């Protein structure tokens, strides 16, 4: 074997799929599928390479290009069904593979075997790179049974995942906007956060709303707004808000508060959607929620990320590694290297 090709294939790494070698036009491996298809997916096009033939001989090859618009994807699905191709593989490239997967997972009444593989596990030999060569390489690896698919949860789980991940983004935005309001009050000379743990609680929000409306607040009014345990700090709070806003500051504070309220409404709306989606996972949700330290929100996120079918993970070690909870190991010649 040519040493340059061997180095390019990275044979020392068992995770990189690279034992398929072309030498003098002969495949040096054993095929396991008679019909299969490799897809090289881009934003606007999908290049498909269909390999068909006896597993003991060289397969015939047909390459077609399809649009990623819905009619093009439907045409791809129809073509694969006509060719009786039950096995398809593609790279997990950005989000472009998702609409392709959504169309093909309905093929043959849901019986098509679709492998979405990690791109670094199907590295090609060095040389000129084209979309056609990429699709043929994917098909060749699939025909030899050398591809391991990534974990793709069911449609209901994927829908729940979209909701929980969006909720995470909204709550981060909500927290960020709270900090923005607090910093603006500080810049205007109001030190509420010095004496109130949560300035957006009942007492704090009432005082902030009053400032946004009138620009100032007198000590007697502060005493009316302070509730609960915050009453023991009433005198300190009176001093902390003993200032005055001009018209611009009042207007800008109202804009910030309006945005904050809108963000809260969006979070509440997504919570309702998540609650509806969780009805399909009520049994699993109750079991996870019963674990000390895990609430409904965390339980929903766990289900959304790992699903409810544990057959995708061989052992507990696999699922911990997949979830990013297992420490990495980078050792060479007896020396452990720090991760960057």
Shape by Cα distribution: elongated
Question: What percent of residues adopt helix (DSSP H or I)?
Answer: 40-55%
Quick one: how many beta strands? 9
Structural class of the secondary elements? alpha/beta
Q: How many domain units?
A: 2
One letter per element, helices H and strands E, the order comes to HEEEEEHEHEHHHHHHHHHHEE
The biggest sheet, with number of strands, parallel, antiparallel or mixed sense and barrel status, is: 5 strands, mixed
Estimated share of beta-strand residues: 5-15%
How confident is the prediction overall: mean pLDDT?
84
The helix tally amounts to 13
User: Could you state the CATH homologous superfamily of the largest domain?
Assistant: ATPase, nucleotide binding domain
Strand order of the largest sheet: 5-4-3-6-7
Q: Mind telling me the C-alpha Rg?
A: 29 Å
The CATH architecture of the largest domain is: 2-Layer Sandwich
Annotated CATH topology of the largest domain: Nucleotidyltransferase, domain 5
CATH class of the largest domain: Alpha Beta
Which regions contain 5 or more consecutive residues with pLDDT less than 50? 1-28
Terminal Cα span: 34 Å
């Amino acid at each position: 074997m040519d040493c340059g090709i061997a180095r390019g294939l990275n044979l020392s790494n068992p995770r990189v799929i690279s034992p398929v070698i072309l030498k003098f036009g002969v495949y040096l491996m054993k095929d396991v599928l008679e019909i299969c298809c490799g897809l090289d997916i881009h934003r606007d096009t999908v290049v498909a390479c269909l390999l068909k033939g006896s597993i003991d001989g060289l397969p015939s090859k047909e390459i077609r290009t399809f649009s990623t618009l819905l009619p093009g994807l439907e045409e791809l699905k129809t073509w694969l069904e006509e060719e009786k191709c039950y096995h398809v593989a593609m790279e997990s490239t950005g989000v472009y593979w998702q609409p392709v997967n959504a169309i093909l997972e309905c093929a043959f009444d849901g019986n098509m075997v679709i492998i979405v593989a990690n791109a670094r596990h199907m590295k090609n030999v060095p040389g000129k790179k084209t979309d056609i060569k990429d699709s043929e390489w994917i098909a060749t690896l699939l025909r030899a049974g050398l591809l391991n698919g990534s974990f793709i949860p069911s449609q209901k789980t994927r829908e729940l995942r979209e909701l929980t991940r969006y909720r995470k983004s909204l709550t981060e935005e909500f927290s960020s906007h709270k900090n923005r309001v607090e910093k603006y009050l500080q810049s205007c000379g109001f030190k509420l956060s010095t004496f109130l743990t949560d300035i957006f609680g009942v007492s704090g929000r009432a005082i902030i709303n009053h400032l946004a409306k009138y620009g100032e607040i007198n000590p007697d009014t502060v005493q009316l707004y302070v509730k609960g345990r915050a009453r023991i700090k009433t005198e300190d709070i009176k001093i902390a808000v003993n200032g005055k806003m001009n018209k611009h500051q009042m207007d800008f504070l109202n804009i910030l508060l309006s945005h904050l309220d809108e963000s809260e409404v969006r979070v509440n709306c997504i919570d309702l959607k998540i609650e509806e989606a969780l009805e399909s996972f009520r049994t699993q949700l109750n079991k996870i929620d019963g674990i000390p330290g895990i609430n409904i929100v965390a339980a929903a996120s766990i289900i959304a990320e790992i699903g409810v079918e544990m057959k995708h993970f061989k052992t507990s070690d696999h699922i911990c590694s997949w979830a990013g909870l297992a420490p990495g190991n980078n050792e060479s010649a007896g020396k452990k290297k720090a991760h960057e």
